[in-house]
Amino acid sequence: MKKGIIVLIVLALIGFGLYSWGVGFNNTAISLKETSTKTWANVESAYQRRNDLIGNLVKTVQGAADFERGTLKDVIEARSKATSVSIDPTNITPEQLNQFNQAQSGLSGALSRLLVTVERYPDLKSNQNFLELQSQLEGTENRINVARDRFNATVEPYNLHIKKFPNSILASILNFDELAYFKSEAGSEKAPDVDFDFE
Question: How far is CA 166 from CA 15, 20, 62, 163, 177, in A?
Answer without folding.
Answer: 16, 14, 60, 8, 15
